[in-house]
UniProtKB/TrEMBL annotation:
Region (Disordered): 35-57
Record-given protein name: Putative RNA-binding protein YlxR (DUF448 family)
Ranges in coiled-coil conformation: none
Domain YlxR: 13-84
Pfam families: YlxR (PF04296)
């Protein structure tokens, strides 16, 4: 019997904004934290925070949809404080800068021999 090999390279996640499935590595993870003021959402670009995560494409249109539909509350199954627009923008900028840095890494001098 022949086994079907999937074309999927790694873990897949669904963007809570546009609802498209994509590679986990191309999505920004958000985590839930508890403080004195209640539950809030924080970016988790290194994917180290424990607990349930919410995944979002690092694109302004996905962020706008997340805010408009209150998708963080649905993803975390709880009433949460939305991050400020500046926090979302900064997280997207940092995530995309990291991706650009990974792609534009130049070889060390002399290593191309």
């Amino acid at each position: 019997m022949e086994r079907h090999v999937s074309e999927v390279e790694g873990p897949q996640r669904t963007c809570i904004g546009c609802r498209q499935v994509d590679d986990q590595s191309s999505l920004l993870r958000w985590a839930l934290t508890q403080d004195d003021d209640g539950k809030s959402v924080v970016p988790d670009p290194r994917r180290r925070k424990s607990g349930r995560g919410a995944w979002m494409h690092p694109r302004p249109e996905c962020a706008a949809t997340v805010v408009r539909k209150r998708a963080f509350s649905r993803a975390f199954r709880a009433q949460v404080r939305m991050p400020a627009d500046e926090t979302i923008s900064a997280a997207i900028d940092a995530f995309t800068a990291r991706e650009r840095a990974d792609v534009t890494v130049q070889p060390e001098s002399g290593s191309e021999i």
